[in-house]
């Protein structure tokens, strides 16, 4: 009984360590580069949308997630959750969240259509971008929902 508990505890610790390695946490220093961009929805600048850049671990990228909220012109400047400016260079999966999206109480209908297709609100949605090795601008243009 005690032995099986110890094995499960070790296995659980291994899962936690693997998760930390995949998210870029730990002792390794990662390179951050200045990264900014513009988000458009249906060719129009999209204000007040949260953008999260997650390094694409399926393509060997590692490091912290970077995020920003777009201004009135759809512009954003990325920073990490610990307050450092920039993002890790390389491929990223991008998650969008419309801060102006209507969120009615459960069971109540929407009174206005969402600006974003729901597929862009998860990591599986297919929105990808490359942060240049020396930093720079990233243009994101997603179609308006139909």
Features:
146 residues, alpha+beta, 2 domains, elongated, disordered N terminus
General description of the model:
It is a single chain. The protein is of the alpha+beta class and 146 residues long. It has two domains: 1-29; 31-142, Immunoglobulin-like, CATH 2.60.40. The protein contains one helix and nine strands, in the order H-E-E-E-E-E-E-E-E-E. The strands form two sheets. It has a five-stranded antiparallel beta sheet with strand order 6-4-3-7-8, with no helix packed on it. A hairpin with a 2-residue loop joins strand 1 and strand 2 (44-45). The termini are far apart. Mean pLDDT is 83; it is low at 1-27.
Query: Given the C-alpha coordinates, what overall shape results?
Result: elongated
**Biggest sheet strand line-up:** 6-4-3-7-8
Task: Just give the CATH class of the largest domain.
Answer: Mainly Beta
Number of strands: 9
Classify the beta-strand content into a percent band. 25-35%
Largest sheet: 5 strands, antiparallel
Rg, nearest Å? 19 Å
Number of helices: 1
Q: Give the CATH architecture of the largest domain.
A: Sandwich
Helical residues, percent: 10-25%
- Would you give the CATH topology of the largest domain? Immunoglobulin-like
Summary of the model, kept short:
By secondary structure, the chain is of the alpha+beta class. It is built from one helix and nine strands, in the order H-E-E-E-E-E-E-E-E-E.
